[in-house]
Specification:
The chain is an all-alpha fold. The chain is built from four helices and no strands. The termini are far apart.
Amino acid sequence: MNKEIKGTKGRKGSKYPPEIRTQAVGMYHNCRGEYTSNVTAARHIANLLGVTSFDTILNWVKQDQIDKGVVKDMTTEEHQEVRRLKREVAELKRANSILKAASIFFAAELDRPQS
């Protein structure tokens, strides 16, 4: 695997920088007509750019079409918003749990007989 590509900026966990993704999508659109199938074109581009799976190229192309409004589905921004909201919900659930435990503790303290 190409070590220059690994660990670069992009979404968390991504092995490839956004520049590689953009380049791959552009190359796919430019050369798709030269190949008999989407898979063949994606496999060729993956080999040229050192991307480990041609499926990655196909996924990038599909997401690019979604982001441009060519295909109806969730855009990258919508996926990011859903992820952000899920993190926020988890944080609020943790806070609620802490507050609930604290209220039970203080209610028990108030119910104790004063000496």
